[in-house]
Structure formats: C-alpha cells, structure tokens
Specification:
The chain is built from two helices and three strands; from the N terminus they run H-H-E-E-E. The protein has 82 residues and is of the alpha+beta class. The protein folds into two domains: 43 residues, no CATH class; 39 residues, no CATH class. Helix 1 crosses helix 2. It is elongated, with a radius of gyration of 17 Å. The protein starts with 5 loop residues before the first helix and ends with a strand.
Length: 82
C-alpha cells in the first residue's frame, strides 16, 4: 500500500535537484526488500491466451494505481499480475 511505501516516498522529499545526495534509510531498505519479495511471489511467466488481459484500477488511500493482469475464478490465486 501507499502507507507501506512511505519510507521510500520520504526519500523523494527535500531538494528537487536530481543530483542531490540521497541516503537509503534502514526503513526504506526494508520496504524495498518487501516490494521485491511481493513482486517475485506474484510474477506470472506466461499469459493464458483464453483469458482477457485487463487493466485493474485500484485507489488505495485515494492514490489511483493500475495493475495489468488476468483474472480467473478457476485459478487458486485468481489474479495473475503481468
């Protein structure tokens, strides 16, 4: 969720110069590791051509987010994120 990613967003606050020094905090590093695990666990290596590819729009904490995936009630995990 956006709230879970807030330590990463905190890095973007401050100096708008892209060359300004940034330091990854332990909290932000932990969030990056959690994101990596979540993406790795949900990754799909192939598309089922019989199922439509859909863009799902969700609004966690009123921040619209798009997910490209496929949905099938017959799958153990019905959402396959592409």
């Amino acid at each position: 969720t956006t709230a879970q990613l807030s330590p990463l967003f905190d890095l973007l606050n401050g100096d708008s110069d892209l060359k300004s020094p940034r330091r990854l905090t332990p909290e932000a590093r932990q969030v990056l590791e959690e994101v990596q695990r979540a993406v790795s666990a949900q990754q799909v290596h192939r598309i089922d051509p019989s199922i439509d590819v859909t863009v799902f729009i969700i609004t966690p904490d009123l921040h619209p987010t798009g997910i490209i995936g496929q949905w099938s009630e017959q799958w153990p995990d019905p959402l396959h994120v592409l």
